[in-house]
Amino acid sequence: MKALVRWGTTLGLVGSTLLGTLFVGNLPVMALSEEQIKKKLDSVPVYLITNEEGLPLSRPLPESQKPGGSVTGVYMSRQEAQSFIRELQGVPGKDPKMEKMLKSLQVTAVPLGVIYEQLQQTKNQSQRLLFAFKPVEQEIKGAMELLRQNGQEVKQFNSVPIFAVRFSPEQGYVPIQLASDTEELIPLFLSKQDAQGLLRQVKSKFPKADIQVIDIEGVIKTLQDKDDAWLNQVVLVPSQESREYIKTLPTPSENNSQPPKPRRR
Question: Where do the record's region annotations for Disordered lie (predicted)?
Fold first, then answer.
């Protein structure tokens, strides 16, 4: 779980992103490496249900389903993961062994980049752990509302929605500039509400500005396949719930409380 510590630094970036100002400039072209993609995904915490040994709760896939292996749920909301545990623990008529196992369940946060890395490392293995993303219900509803407003007939949305603010449907994404830096960023929000906040900032100057709904798989595939310049400036912005959770994590200095060892001459 050492990877969690990195979120302390990322949170400062995220906070500045939400308070940033509009900036339009020239972006250099550079393809993204696997490590760069993982680093971008690491800014988003996701939540697994694990047992007392830290192993994720999973279920085997049917023999007829390929690839084989097992699947575990990846929650985008810590609260929703905790609710699922309470639901499991509340089922009556459990045997003592099952009861003990359910009582040991806990919610464990990991960076999204860790899930991505695991999938990349095991993608050619027949028996591997697969991940089923559990989007936030409120964000699913928000994504479907936006899609319908844009004239798309949508009955369901089977992925984690990502919200991006555009100058217009025919133009590119709105970049921002940190107040304390000249670095240009393009925020992709996991919360519709956060995207609406940026949209309100630019709507008066760009009346056709809107919010595009993307899914997380589409974002990852674009990062993998495209050399477009703006991808280098992409930053994924976690939801308010996750940002609040990140604030509770210890900083690197708190984790390294032991005094430094003297250097040998």
Answer: 245-265
Distance (Å, whole) CA 45 – CA 65: 29
Q: Are strands 210-215 and 161-166 parallel, antiparallel or unpaired?
A: antiparallel
What distance in Å separates the CA atoms of residue 84 and residue 86, rounded to the nearest whole number? 5
Global pTM? 0.80
Estimate to the nearest angstrom the gap between the alpha carbon of 45 and the chain centroid: 6
Kindly tell me the sign of the dihedral angle through the C-alpha atoms of 60, 95, 134, 38. negative
Show Cβ contacts of residue 139 under 8 Å, excluding neighbours closer than 6 positions: 76, 160, 161, 190, 191, 192, 239
User: Which two tokens mark 26?
Assistant: 């020239």
The model's pLDDT over 206-223, given as tens digits with 9 standing for 90+, comes to: 999 999 999 999 899 888
- Give per-residue pLDDT as tens, 79-134: 999 999 999 888 777 788 888 888 889 999 999 999 999 888 887 777 777 889 99
The strand pair at 210-215 and 58-60 is best described as unpaired
